Amino acid sequence: MQTITYLILVPMVYLAYLIFVLGIISRMVKIWRAPVQPTTLQIFPEKKPKWLWALHDSFLLPTVRKHNPVLWFFLMIFHIALLLLIIGHLELFKGFTFFQFWEHEIFLGKGFVGLTMIIALLYLLFRRFASPTRQISIPEDYYLLILIFLTVLFGSQMDWARRWYGYAELSPSDYQTYLTSLLFFRPELPSAVYQTGHSFMLVLHVFFANLFIMFFPFSKIMHSFFSIPMNRLRRG
Ligand code: HEM
Predict the structure, then answer these.
(1) Cα–Cα 20 to 30 A to 224, which of 62, 76, 84, 102?
(2) Which CATH number does 40-234 carry?
(3) How far is CA 195 from CA 127, 169, 173, 204, in A?
(4) 236 falls in which pLDDT band (50, 70, 90)?
């Protein structure tokens, strides 16, 4: 079991990030080299400054808000939680104190960031079981949402176990030791990882996160890289 824990928490993380970086580069090169096609983009009214409107369209999703306010609500809370999640993970590196200008505990959000994401993900998944979204969904849509759901569920479980159910054997400072050691290529797993039973949540969280990171460049989530430039083009 110790070997599996090590393989998932160390070499698989490096492999996942390697595939992520190479995958993104290869997707970008393919798009760059693709023959120019006549545009099928729906053009929005031109407004200046164009970049600011592109940001507005990308982050506030006005078209979705107009046509489907419920979907818009869940997309907004999902993306806000995602932003907080990125900050939360950055703070799991020792010495990363940039966001401490507003004082808060690590992991930030007291367990509610993960809870919010879980609720939003359940909505996004179940809407694909009903018409008309079901008819336009493909298997990848379900796999992707289920994979993100499992990653978020086990990440949140770690936080809830510690904060809400008193399992304090694995602490944020253990996570900081682990993640900072990975960053500097001197991998070190704190002894608590091998000694406490509930580290299975960490192993499952990182396992599903690794699969997600490897899958990312080849999935629909690549839209996150293209949405701002596409919206900029739409604004003429
Ligand atoms: C290799 C990559 C990753 C590692 C090593 C990692 C590690 C961690 C650790 C150590 C925690 C802290 C748990 C606690 O406070 O007890 C955490 C929390 C969390 N992670 Fe990750 N994570 C990774 C990627 C991801 C990804 C890709 C997602 C989502 C798509 C994610 C979602 C979450 C969530 C939802 C939480 C809990 C947030 C909350 O406290 O409300 N993680 N992660």
Answers:
(1) 102
(2) 1.20.950.20
(3) 41, 9, 16, 16
(4) low
- pLDDT tens, residue by residue, 164-217: 999 989 999 999 999 999 999 999 999 999 998 889 999 999 999 999 999 999
Q: Does ligand 1 lie within 6 Å of residue 190's CB atom?
A: no
**pLDDT tens, 87-134?**
999 999 999 999 999 899 999 999 999 999 999 999 999 999 999 999
User: What local confidence, expressed as pLDDT, does residue 65 receive?
Assistant: 94
Kindly state if the Cβ of 111 falls inside 6 Å of ligand 1.
yes
Per-residue pLDDT of 35-51, as tens digits, reads 877 766 677 777 778 88
Does the beta carbon of 201 lie inside 6 Å of ligand 1?
no
